[in-house]
Amino acid sequence: MINFDLTEDQIELQLRVKQFVVDKVIPFEKDPRLTSHGPTDELRVELNDLAREAGLFAPHVPTEWGGMGLDHTTLAVVFDAAGYSPLGPIALHCAAPDEANMNLLHRVATQAQKERWLKPFAAGEIRSNFCMTEPGGAGADPSGMLTKAHYDGDDFIVSGVKWLITGAKGSSFTIIFCDVQADGDKPGGPTMLISDMDQPGIKISRELDTIDNSFTGGHAEVTFENLRIPPENVLGEVGEGFRYVQVRLAPARLTHCMRWLGAARRVHEIACDYARNRHAFGKPIGEHEGIGFMLADNEIDIQQSQLMIWWTAAALDKGEKGRHESSVTKTAVSEAVFRVADRCVQILGGSGITQDTVVEWVFREARAFRIYDGPSEVHRWAIAKRILRNG
């Protein structure tokens, strides 16, 4: 049986992170450097410095690379507290896509690759992006990949287009998921390649205007035109890309849930406060069943989400793969968080659709959460396949 009681150290860390976010991070939510394409790097660096001063920087990064080296269960507590503000994960350097890319590099990269990219990356000196999704190609189904690479001697020449690439603008390097064309005795197949973003052959074609704006650098379309990548920049092995995608995505789906659960708690608290103090038809609106039931449903969704996250985190800490569990949890929590945010908008009425509170912002972010790292419908399809296969 899994014990969901927090240790004294976890409780202390949870309180430290929550207080840090409330005191130091929330005041930046109206900062002009928070743009329609996310926080600028100047704002990110300033928030990173505050987290360093508080001893809360990079909780997920192994201690050998300067992080706190926390396990998944403790990360669930910390990321939840960080997510109390959409800027909290930015401050702690544990936001997407960087958090997942750091995990991937730590688990798959060579020592030389770690020294070149992971070391400054973990320190917050540079940012990254992950190029997998394509317009009309790879996305929820990565087997539809259109970006190709062919051999030129021992080098790889990459051509294709990726889009909805989070953090592309201003990032220092990219991890490219592409289909390498076999050549004689040289292997082919789905492969991950690393490249610095300043290389000839990489162009940010356009910045995308999207519903969300909590990720540094926003989202962009990236074009590769005869990009040359040397063999030492292969991440892992040629042809093993699908395996590494799961190394990255299984824990990343879970950490998304952790962060956005914290945001759900925040907007629920705002809605509760509003329901206590706003009067209509002779009493606080929270005492009307229409509002009171929405608050109750929020509480149910939040508590169920927390239990699912902790259960999946515990499975990962026990060494279980967690791919199926993270898919179930990502689907359930993303839908629950959106329901919470949607109800909070409704409870606040006109105020809920303004930027007077963070509710409108979290609502937009939660809507996008139901799509990225696999839309809910694709996860349900995969879950159903597993159910039928296993009887």
TrEMBL record:
Keywords: FAD, Flavoprotein, Oxidoreductase. Transmembrane segments: none annotated. One of its GO terms (biological process) is fatty acid beta-oxidation using acyl-CoA dehydrogenase. Residues 239-388 form the Acyl-CoA dehydrogenase/oxidase C-terminal domain. Residues 7-125 form the Acyl-CoA dehydrogenase/oxidase N-terminal domain. One of its GO terms (molecular function) is acyl-CoA dehydrogenase activity. It comes from the Bacteria. This is (R)-benzylsuccinyl-CoA dehydrogenase. It comes from Zhongshania aliphaticivorans.
